[in-house]
Amino acid sequence: MSEPLAILRVGMCCSVGLDAAQTASSIRAGVTRKSESWILDWDSEPVILGHLADRHLPPLVPSLAKRARTSAIEPRLLRLAGAPLAEVLSAEFAKLALPVHLALPEPLDAQPFVSMLGEQAQRRIDVGASRVFTAGHAGFFSALAAARDELITPGRAEFVVVGGVDTYVDAERVAALERAGRLRTSGPQDAFTPGEAAAFVVVANEATRRRHNLSALAWITSVGVSGGGELATLCSAVLDGALAPDHPIRLVMAGLNGESKSAKQWGVARIRNQEHFARPLRVEHPAEYTGDSGAALAPMMLGTAALWIRAGTVGGPALVWASADSGDHGALVLYAPA
């Protein structure tokens, strides 16, 4: 990555927090919130999900309530993402029309969905310049890489909102997991607890940050996405050259969800890149507390790490990674402000 990106704002919502500060604090404290849902498994038992109670989600705004749906989960995605988007576009960003690069769980028409998201959040969005990425857990890293290209190209965007929203509160998605043997129920299993979340960051380059006299929460110094291959190889590419010799990685936000495949990939990546990791190394996997929130997991991990680093809760630099079901991987390096 030729130029670092400043994280200027964070907005988040998940089962353990209704805003960014609450989410980051709850994950730091190890607060777990997984509970029975209205969805039943094959044994007619309630499925455990890391989900928000309906009373904690704002209703759809009147202009959206009666619109035809292109997806069964579209209304819940909008309800999940509205408040975090409004949070990240507060203060000096509240009146700007910014592009949104958004990771989603399934293909949706980008412009209509982003337009509706702006209505739900009551914020202006540059719909024409917005994009949607549907690469599962790796989608956010693709969105961030695309935002980086926008920000370093003269005459393009000054700020970009990058984020993700996803939910497994859907009977068909849960049934698909159960058919594949991936739904955690009871007993030893190579499976995971599904969840839901929405998370966003506002990013800019250094010149823009200085021009607008804004403070950075943290800096993204390297980001990468691989179309298959090994997580270890991607981590090597992201870490090599991104770290000073006396600044090893001290925090890892890992996209581990309880399945053995990602655990094995991470084990190999850690061993092959051990020279880049501090001892002791703090490894966090927020899906343990919130359930696996799919396309929203990576931005939630990034937002949490940025707030921890800003508050001095943990020292940087940090590595954030996640792997998609397709075999794609994403990773980035995060530094504390100088």
Description:
By secondary structure, the chain is of the alpha/beta class. The protein folds into two domains: 5-211, Peroxisomal Thiolase, Chain A, domain 1 (3-Layer(aba) Sandwich); 220-335, Peroxisomal Thiolase, Chain A, domain 1. It contains eleven helices and twelve strands. The chain has helices at 20-29, 62-65, 74-88, 110-121, 139-152, 171-179, 206-211, 231-239, 260-272, 287-290, 297-311; strands at residues 5-14, 35-40, 46-49, 100-103, 131-133, 160-167, 196-205, 218-226, 249-254, 277-284, 318-323, 329-335. The chain has a ten-stranded mixed beta sheet, with helices on both faces. α1 (20-29) packs across α11 and α3 (74-88) crosses α4. The longest helix has 15 residues, at 74-88. GO terms for molecular function: acyltransferase activity. It comes from Enhygromyxa salina.
